[in-house]
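Our working data are protein records whose layout never changes between entries. Getting from the letters to the tokens is the skill we practise here. To make this concrete, we reproduce a full record directly below:
***
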Amino acid sequence: MLVGVYHAIAAKLRTVSHSQTAEFLTGGRKLPIIPVCLSLLTTFISGIALLGLPAEIYQRGIGMGIGFFGGGVSFLISGAFFVPVFYKLQFISVYEYLEIRYDSVILRRIGSALFLVSTLFYMAVVMYAPSVALVGVTDVPLWPFILAVGAVSTVYTAIGGIKAVIWTDTLQAGFMYVGLGTLIIKGTMDAGGFWKVIEVAEKTGRLTESINKWDPSPFQYNSFWITTFGGILHWTCFYGLNQMALQRYCSMPSLRHARIVMGLTVPAFWIIGIMCCSIGIIMIGYFHGCDPVGTGEIENMDQMSILMAGRILAIVPGLPGLFLSSLFSSTLSTTSSGSNSMTAVIWEDFLKHKYNGMDESKKARLMKIITFIIGIASTLLAFACDYMGGIFNAATTTLGAAAGPLVGLFFLGIFSQKANKNGAFAGLTVSSILMLILSVSNNIEKPYSRYVLPLNQNASNPMCRIFNSTSSRHSEVHISSLKHHLDLHPHLLHRPDWHYGDPSTSLFARTSPFVYAAIGKWIS
């Protein structure tokens, strides 16, 4: 909040009347390299990665971690083909490209609308992530956590603009690295050491076995090919052809500076990805034989990271708060970036032609009002995420389905000279309809909800007694009730045979969520 106040005052003191809009949206195109790099990193590494990815690895193995290495390739693709085009054009809204390339205002506004809807959902999901985790380990209800994140990010983004977003993201990135690093070091020690963690992960099929899937069929949860190529195209949607990323690249002093930012972000991205995957592997060793969902200690897998952090870091009073700061930092960075970029798109693509003659101070005030409205809307939408089957599923199904068709328009325009607006309309329409069918089918039928690798429960495991005896919410649970609970809920243990989904569900539902972006781009 204070960073936002500082940049609001500083911008007012140093900007002349005609530059307030550019200052709010692009920082005068003079943003520093390292803060932009860290801001770019934290924009798309949110609570989904800190909570959802470790839970995903705990349930289904390290296979999804391969997608992070594909993310590094997406930076190379973006730096070679996309960033030079958009930097030369110097658009504040990247969707202006659609109007110029296809000679269609309607296509530009459709593209902008798709971005606004998908980003609003994305912000809602990442607000929901830390909130639902904390609800599982405290007696506080869900709504105060969501409101706290929504209010803080909305206020400092609205008053400080993109510079407040960039510098708060830099601070938050520091908390993320320190918090995750502390948890990894102490967690590895408590789980029996590095080699013990690896041994348990391998024994339960979550290392080499989870990667050793070579079937190219899209009608399965994942495989090496789905994770690799799907990951490249998925991250290209976000770090290459997304308003939140391109707005930062185009706000740099030169194209060379923009490419330096991309180059520095790759190792930072890989490091944070490895750290998130490491937490999932550590959880396998730490909870081996006493799955906390199976014992009823927590309600869903999304709460596991915060449960482990609370226990492991409890040796020093206040230290669990370090992980909480990492969690909330990742959330604030994403929501603030989303709000600022959505404001830029709404102004440039829908309002500028009507209010361009307005006084600069009034324009700046209007943008702040828009940012406040976006923050309120995303906060309200966050409450709906509780019905979408967990944060990882919510993110992959909604974001990939929305981004794929839109990014396909940019691919078509950049790589095909013969493409015209009629072909673009046809591709976008067919692709969007198919993506809607796939996403809705997956969320309704939930074909992979019971696909979990073996989770060996051992009711005589002394750790189960420790967990149950120290839990304020489940202190009455004993070994006998644990056995009874597992008898009633056998699906909590494992259903590895459902890698290809529930056979009673449709092929639309069983299409892997990790290829949505690839399918959407190809059809569009």
Notes: Residues 468-493 have pLDDT under 50 and may be disordered. Residues 142-190 form the longest helix (49 residues). Residues 26 and 233 are 27 Å apart (CA to CA). The domain at 2-9+31-523 is CATH 1.20.1730.10 (Sodium/glucose cotransporter).
